[in-house]
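Before a colleague's protein record goes any further, I have to sign it off. My question to you is simply how this chain folds and whether the tokens agree. I do not need a full report, just your reasoning and any doubts. This is what I was given:
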Amino acid sequence: MTVEQLAGIIVDEVLKGADGTNIKCGVVGEIGCSWPLTPSEHRVLQATAQAQSQLGCPVIIHPGRNSDSPFQIIRILQEAGADASKTVMSHLDRTIFDTKELLEFAKLGCYLEYDLFGTEFLHYQFHPDIDMPSDNERIARIRMLIDEGYEDRILMAHDMHTKNRLMKYGGHGYSHIFKNIVPKMLIRGISQDKIDKILQANPKRWLTFK
């Protein structure tokens, strides 16, 4: 399909409903991207940008597993008319590790999502070269971004997608951030008002159509 055809499908699913239903999409994504980016993924990004420019809708991106991927994706989106301030770059905890590089990316204006809370293991099967950070390291990263003035751009989540993550099967469950991470954030000097901004105000702002 062409970029224009893809954009038309996205717009229709937001305004009319998805897959022949009257259930309207409130978010475009998660837009999956590989590394290196494939031609079809490039077209989908351009179509997403066109749809967002028409609708003012929130967009969320799954970047490829390479630190250059988020930069490439935002460039493609912006060149096609997207609004970075309504766009989330997810999975940054497994994507950009260098502090200087992360701060350079933060300047581009999208939301910076640390969404693998509760995921801690030695071997990351999708990319064995990556050392998956611990939750303590994620908190330290968020504290650094706050200190650098990016508290309005931070989002947090669990990326809960397998049943072993549920409490029923021995996992942390959906309450992990509230029960375990927030208290540790307070210990690490992140104030309650900043935590509320990250967990409430920022998602609300992102999810609101312009």
The chain has a mean pLDDT of 96. The chain has seven helices and five strands. The beta strands are 28-32, 59-62, 87-89, 111-114, 154-156.
